[in-house]
Amino acid sequence: MGMGREGARGQGGGGQRLGEMGSQSAGSGVSAALEKPGYEKDAHKDGAPLPRNPLKVLLIGHQFQVPSEGQAKAAALSAFSDLAVHVLCPERYREAEVRWRAALEPKSPRYQFRTTPVQNAWCGPAKWYLQWYPELKQRLLALKPDIVDLWEEPWNLLSAQVSRLCSRFLPDCRLISETEQNISKRLPPPFEWFRMQTLGRASYVVARNREALAVTRGKGYAGPARVVGNGVDTRLFRPLDRALCRQGAGLHGFVVGYAGRLVEEKGLLSLLRAFRKLKGPRVLYLCGEGPLLEPMRREPFVKWAGAVPREKLPWFYNALDVLVLPSLTTASWKEQFGRVLVEAQACGIPVLGSNSGAIPEVIGDAGIVFPENDDVAMLAALDRLRLETGLRDLFSQAGRLQATRLYSWEAIAGQMREIYLQLPTVVQSAVLKKGSPPS
User: Fold this and answer.
1) Pairing assessment for the beta strands 50-51 and 39-40 based on DSSP bridges
2) Where are the domains of the chain?
3) Are 114 and 87 in contact (CB under 8 A)?
4) Domain 242-407's class?
């Protein structure tokens, strides 16, 4: 389908009109208008208006199933007294396209957490892009949020469902569409229409990287937008006793780690070629699953940690000398953020990565970037970090500082709050450029 690596889910629901999805009753007597909250102009030092009543923010997305991902974002947002945070996520989700996971109930949340049934949770080639929530209309009308922050790609059927329902029943609700797609492509029907429907209703777009923002602009979106990175739970991902972590894993010598899908587009064949020429005692420590697992495990220097649960990943990272992300750009995919980079940095582990997609943005000055699919350049970077322990220490400190300041969930929540407080002044119809066709 040429839709990249973000997918689609489940079963059923084919024949209903988009605006009526989940409407078990007609709901004809429900008023579509929301009562706007009052605002005190220029009450914040940042210039954003101060709501007299907390803004009711509804966060929607499969990431909110997990404590260290969306739930950490919700917790950080709920620390602000001017936000009343609510979460809605699917009961089930196909993680990494290989296994089903159920939503985990957060412990003593300061926000309201709800799960919902999902239809079309997985649809083969369409992945999870045809998912929708049968009970969404009832949930929206019961809550009447001021803001819906939708952490799903705009061409997802769920995004089109949310935008349609907000347009019909909650016209004063501001919709934020979050996107990570950094390759411009015309999607097959009906996905391009879903994207236009979502961007046509969005009050604001949050892009995960600069290229994703450019793609959104290229699709005709003319409203307000901002790049906000992905977050990392710096309470979970933190420096640990590295000697103990290495001892527990049985590791010795120069340890280079990789975490993620074990597939060719992640540049792992190039990594193997470079690693064969790296001198001295060394280990390539892998975490993840995929078709390249067995071929890679045949190499004498490779050690596999298994498919490590997220809550155990800090022990994996802290056993490393360096983490590498050697991703390759393909016609349908390139690296959209590289969350493993900021997780490793938060643990104080030096990182290096290719120049695919958003990797250089994320690494910044706190690591080494090399040309993708360049075995010689990757080998030189690895060898430099192997020999220069002082440089490793420098990158360790700089990376930890960068992860905390830029990518901690507290930092991300602060950026999102700024957006939320600006939204009441946004003109809702400032969306697609007039006459701009989808490209």
Assistant:
1) antiparallel
2) 53-231+412-425, 242-407
3) yes
4) alpha beta
Query: Is residue 372 a contact partner of residue 328, using CB atoms and an 8 Å limit?
Result: yes
Which residue is listed with tokens 């939708």? 150
Token pair recorded at residue 143: 């809550």
Answering whether pTM is above 0.70, one says: yes
What does the angle CA 35 – CA 134 – CA 106 come to, to the nearest 5 degrees?
75
| 17, 19, 206 from 172: Cα distances, Å | 22, 17, 19
Find, among 275, 246, 298, the residue nearest to 378 by Cα.
275
- The values of phi and psi at residue 270, to 5°, are -65, -40
- Which two structure tokens, joined as six digits, stand for 152? 């799903």
One fold for 53-231+412-425 and 242-407: yes
Distance of CA 409 to CAs 47, 316, 321, Å? 23, 21, 25
What is the rounded distance in angstroms from the CA atom of residue 416 to the CA atom of residue 228?
Answer: 8
pLDDT in tens, 52-101: 689 999 999 999 998 988 999 999 999 999 999 999 999 988 775 667 88
Q: Give Cα 244 distance to the centre of its chain.
A: 31
Structure tokens at 320: 């490393």
- Rounded-to-integer distance, Cα 289 and Cα 304, Å: 10
DSSP string, 118-138: -BSB--GGGTBTT-B-TTHHH
Entry field: residues in the chain:
439
Q: Where are the alpha helices (DSSP H) in 187-267?
A: 191-201, 210-218, 242-249
Tokens of 51: 């709501």
Task: Retrieve residue 273's tokens.
Answer: 């070629």
The token pair at 437 is 């066709």
Closest of 363, 228, 245 to residue 314, by C-alpha: 245
Q: Which has the closest alpha carbon to 334: 363, 357, 361?
A: 357
Question: pLDDT tens for residues 129-147?
Answer: 899 999 999 999 999 999 9
Residue 360 neighbours by CB under 8 Å, 6+ apart:
353, 369
Which fold is adopted by the domain 53-231+412-425?
Rossmann fold (3.40.50)
> Element (H or E) spanning 83, and its range?
strand 83-90
